[in-house]
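Entry:
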Amino acid sequence: MSSPKCRKGQVSFNARRSRAGLRLLTTTAIVGLSSLALLPPSTASAQQTTSRVSNARTFNIPAQPLASALNAFGRQSGLQVTLAATTSEGMRSKAVNGTMQPQQALAQLLLGTGISYSISGGTALIGSPKAAGGAGTATVAGATALDPISAFGGGPLGAGEIVISSEELRQKNPADIGDVFSGEPGIEVGSSLPMSQKVYVHGIEETSLAVTMDGGRQNNKVFHHNATNLIDPGLLKAVNVDAGVAPADAGPGALAGAIAYETIDAREMLDGDGFGGFVTSSYNFNSDTVTTGISAYGLQEGLEFLGYFNFGKGNDFTAGNGQEVQGTSTDFLSGLGKLAYEFDSGDRFEISYDRIYDDAPRPFRANMSSISNPRPWEPRIRDYTLGRQNTVFTYTDSTPEGWWDPKLLLAYSKTEVELPIFPRPGAGVPTTYQAIGTSDSFNGKFENKFSFDIGNVIAGVDFYNDKADLEDLFDPGTEKARNIGVYAQARLEPWERTRLSFGARGDNQQFTGTTGEEWTNSGFSGNVSGEYDLIEDLLIAKAGYSHVWAGIPLAENFIINPNWNYGDGPKPVTADNYVLGLEANYNGFTIEGSIFQTDIDDARTPRFAVARGIEAHDVRSRGFEVGGGYNWGDGYFKVKYANIDVEIDGKPADSDLGTYLATPAGQIITLQAIHTLTDWGVTFGADAEIALDYDDVAVGSKPLEGYQVFNAYVEYVPVERPNLTLRAELKNIFDETYANRATYGQEFGNVTPLYEPGRSFILTARATF
């Protein structure tokens, strides 16, 4: 395997003399993992015993409102707690004390509530309230099993809320962040290169959302040709998206909502004290790409640890038209480390560190394949080095009492891009030189949850200290922003069949420009959303509104100008979000629909020119989504449709003016179907994305072409070896030549966009120990 290299402005490719070596390496890995299925039963049994030394855990949960009690149970048991429906007004738990199995503890906690439950696969599934003492009530001796909970069976979500669970991530087996959001037509991911992928929620770019990784704020506006947040999906256990209306405790800057990424941890993969690990390896025949992940983790008397490494190597992929897309090779390394300790008192301390590093030749402008009129001194390909890291320290109390349920978080995130600059030739001007753009954020919060019979209120204070810095031979510069915020968010069930969430925050920001000038601004944000069961257990109405003040956003690193004329200073950016929706559920069937609108005012979009440092635009996104599905226990089918119209300054959006703002969206249809043959351990899955032609484009731009992409997979988990998973995927079955709707430059006649890979056959093997 070799990657394209750029020398003196010329692009050369070595022959793929190592293709056979890659295939041999992958075949060896897959055969090695598959051989676990041939181990004697005693070996597998011994391994299972070793990895789960004891399921018993120590519990100390006082009698309290049921919602907060279940929260404490989740922390102390190491299980993920999922509610199948909201709890009833005024319901309280029983006290739980002592060392016991999680199932016994949960039964004791729910005793007398009439609520059913089951524990499976590291998740406690909590059912709907029934008549106390009736059939299906929780008893210490056992539990009432619920049907499997899927995306259409996990209970209603808030207005505009999208949750991608660990089970959905496992089913998707995502190779990049685009795969993570597959099946969600309201969320599009532009570019086929992970290092230049940007996430758009209802057409709004993610820098207008509050994005966190394990609670740590991400400040990654480095270079518009690169990804805003480069994330290895192998690190993730769940993703939560608030599209439009976000709560006050989602953090500052939630102009168009929020995205919260959560990474894997040992408690999710072990039932109790013990040790474990996994090895996974995949091979993509389209690009001869090998990706291998290795993890080890453990729990022992309050101590938790996890280590994870993932690395990939591969060549350029081939698009549906049969042409190799230059600059798309794979060369990345990512890792995650976590260490936590929980004292007998319930005080829990955790520190996590994740990092991803991408180092490969890319198109000169990494979010597009090429332009027809490049500057003659610029090479077609250049080397990019992109790294992102995130460190998070958290303190929580796993045995909250009364009104004391604190959380302290301190985090540091950093994204750095290093690349060669090729200036216009001239006397005394170097042919090329290296420039480094760095965006980082030191941030944190302290909050407390106050629990009541009808819900809870989270109140706290947070801060961030962000910096955008460019190390450049001719025009270095730095912008800074510091912010302190106070917030409170209530989540209540004040009346039967009614759920309300409302909150507010106030922020004070100090912004420092490249010239050293400073401006201080303050603002207020508020939100309210709610759900009402129009017909109990059948039809739910949802609505939400938010007004958000987000201060002054930092400029992109690589357009920073040390001589900007800020005038009276940039204006703080604000937004208003609206959403209305209905959801119906009946015997496994779900139908849902919503309408939404986001208005962003004075969104800063500076350019390099001296007079354009405070340039700003107004953005509007509006549209509707509808969807439906059916869950039959061993599988489900879902279809969703989104129609999104995006404007900038009252005119149709384009992907250039919309840099760090928005992109054209239009009409997207997604379909997903999965079925498991439980007795055989075989799962079949298929999905599709259909984008319709879109001609509501800016004046002088060409219409966006539609496309239809179909994917399928089969997965086998031997019944007698559940620690082994074998998977075969076929992506882009019909070899469609297309670029994702959110990919840059499709409306411009001089741009060849980054096409998605053509037909791709992928083999994956995973063994858990």
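The first strand starts at residue 5 and ends at 7.
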